[in-house]
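One-letter codes give the sequence; the fold follows as tokens. Both lines appear below.
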Amino acid sequence: MSTSANAQPPTPVQGIRELAEMCRRAGVTELHADDATVAVRLLLEPEALDAGDISLNVVLAVESASTGPYVQLSQWVGIFHRGAFDGAVMPQEGRAVRKGEALGVIVAMGLEHELLCDRDGIIERFLIEDGAPVEYGQPLLEIS
């Protein structure tokens, strides 16, 4: 993401695309960086690395995380549940959550994978219904 002295700095979208391309060339599939003003979480699908193609959906998910509420992404492919099978109550919209707190579970091939909160904040809204199928890297909820 280099710029010459006379060139304009890249737009946020261009910068994210350039970062994604650098990660693709290096074989990096996940990158998380944040400071007090912005957070970026980049997830590249392994198929995109092999094909030399960066998924536009992944780039758009990262863009929305940096311009509004933080968007928690799915780490698994499976069925999303807002409640755990052990009966634990999961956080609801409008409730404060802490980093590492369980937000739900994703069931894949009969195994439960906890969805753990990436940061402290307040759940703004769930972007997917309970019991719905999810894909890797799919936005699940917004946290402010």
